[in-house]
Specification:
The chain has about 100 residues and is largely without helices or strands. The protein contains two helices and three strands. Strands 1-2-3 form a three-stranded antiparallel sheet, with no helix packed on it. The longest helix is centred in the middle third of the chain and has 10 residues. It starts with 13 loop residues before the first strand and ends in an 18-residue tail after the last strand. About 20% of the residues are buried.
């Protein structure tokens, strides 16, 4: 179910936020409170073109109940289950960025 392309890797950010983080992908039940080893949560890109691609790839129907322009906030996250390892950049010490 991976959906990111390597070209989008520059927009993938890892966030260590409080346990309220949950994945916005339909039917995904992952949240930070489950403490799943290696599971990380990522903000949508600020670039509108990439943001629209993410909405399509996570299969969110834009419509009356979901408007990407108003419902994707700084707190909206996608969990790492939906990314390939190649989508992440790493520091020299191996930390995901």
């Amino acid at each position: 179910m991976n959906f990111c392309h390597q070209s989008e890797a520059t927009s993938v950010k890892v966030h260590n936020m409080p346990n309220r983080d949950h994945c916005c992908v339909p039917q995904c039940q992952n949240n930070r409170a489950k403490n799943i080893p290696g599971l990380t949560f990522h903000q949508f890109p600020k670039d509108e073109f990439l943001r629209k691609q993410w909405v399509v790839k996570i299969r969110r129907d834009v419509g009356k109940s979901f408007r990407a322009s108003t419902l994707i906030t700084n707190g909206t996250r996608v969990c790492s289950v939906y990314f390939k390892e190649a989508d992440f950049k790493r520091t020299l010490t191996g930390k995901k960025i």
